[in-house]
Amino acid sequence: MSTKQKRYFLTEEEIPTQWYNIQADMVNKPLPPINPATKQPLKPEDLFPVFAEELCRQELDQEHAWVDIPEEVRDMYKYYRSTPLVRAYGLEEAIGTPAHIYFKNESVSPVGSHKLNSALAQAYYCKKQGITNVTTETGAGQWGAALSYAAKVFGLEAAVYQVKISYNQKPYRRSIMQTYGAQVTASPSMSTRAGKDILTKDPNNQGSLGTAISEAIELALNTPNCKYTLGSVLSHVTLHQTIIGLEAEKQMAKAGEYPDIVIGCFGGGSNFGGISFPFMRHNILEGKKTRFIAAEPASCPKLTRGVFQYDFGDVAGYTPLLPMYTLGHNFMPANIHAGGLRYHGAGVIVSQLLKDKLMEAVDIKQLESFDAGMLFSQAEGIIPAPESCHAIAAAINEAKKCKETGEEKVILFNLSGHGLIDMAAYDQYLSGSLQNYEVTDEDVAKNIAELEKVI
Ligand SMILES: *Cc1c(COP(=O)(O)O)cnc(C)c1O
Question: Which atom of ligand 1 is nearest to the CA of 238?
């Protein structure tokens, strides 16, 4: 193991004061979300019943490349930002690669993942609008934990629907949300019409993000002074996450390097977009040639094997129709441990970027992701979240290619969170009982054929 260590930080003054909105610089803008009731392109006002108004405006803003970070949010960022940019000498040595590997360590946030970057912003905008209650869904529990804490910071009540399989598999994440003062319900539940419908058809349904989203939106619509919040997929979430890449850009400059390859794991696209978009702006505006790689699980392969078309973001069809790469909103991913990556669709921005070949996607099998997590833990001392292991696996694959060619490429990946509350998953890996799940082409085709009937 390497004893060389190099970490780069920013001073308080150097922490970015604005987020970056890539929509303004995209040559082909994302297609508009469609209001399913009117079949017309969505206007910000259409989203007002569900989200805080400022977030609705950010969602559809294709004009302003830079958005000021509110002072109150930036003050909270300073509690844990800048997050370290680390030269991963240990990992480089373990692989024996000439590549220079860097990672941005978002696991140092109080809740252990990047999710807090957007949770603070969303809770702030709700508070500013006079909202008193927020709802949300959570899969693995990372987003629920972040939102629960952010709600507490800004004096809001939080109600969280947690995907049932995670609620049972990851009891500590539920305890964390409850410790921050949130009310947590396993989804599907009997507390909403969407949940009842699903349980009536399938009493053993273990839930999915799509189902939990339906329940959380329904509660928000039926509760006075209550808004829904989302931890991924939407463009305003990714906007808030660009703090990661904007910091990384300044930190890489301090290291005297610029990335040839930027990698993030991919659930709905917020941490991938967060680290990538500030660098991608130089590809778009100045013709730089950095490669961007989204690493998704082989069991939920919307980017590598899904179709690009309009689809709902949730199972019940409460969300607008979004133009995205999708496996179909009825897709039930296998119960992999990377709960944060178990989502059927991709955000509209990344979907357009992938279609236009401004980025790439790879799929990683569950066992390969944990192989990477083990190597990284032993080389760098940080036990990564099962989601983050996908980015690490993709980075290792690129570093191995450099070993073959002798190229000294600069690889940057985002460590989206730590895995200290996911040790049950590591236990399974260590005992040899962890398995791969793969989706057959028939499954994908069948689900998408169903989708075409609905939409
Ligand atoms: C939620 C989560 C992800 C996936 O979400 P994205 O929006 O795609 O970033 C990845 N890593 C961790 C640790 C998460 O909590």
Answer: 7
Q: What is the DSSP string of 45-58?
A: HHHTTTS-HHHHHH
Give the structural domain span for 404. Answer: 6-15+73-112+236-454
Residue 336 lies in a domain: yes
Name beta bridge partners: 295: 265, 362
Question: Which CATH number do you get for residue 434?
Answer: 3.40.50.1100
pLDDT tens readout for residues 300-352 = 999 999 999 999 998 888 899 999 999 999 898 888 888 889 889 999 999 99
Q: What are phi and psi of 172, to 5 degrees?
A: -70, -30
Q: Is residue 351 included in any domain, yes or no? A: yes
Tell me which residues have their CB closer than 6 angstroms to ligand 1. Answer: 113, 115, 142-143, 232, 265-272, 340-341, 385, 387-388, 416-417
Structural domain includes residue 309: yes
* Distance in Å, CA 387 to ligand 1 centroid: 6
In sequence order, what E strands does 367-455 have?
A: 410-415
pLDDT of residue 187: 97
Whether the full predicted model's pTM is greater than 0.85, yes or no, is yes
Look at the chain and report how many structural domains it folds into: 1
Q: What is the mean pLDDT of residues 238-247?
A: 99
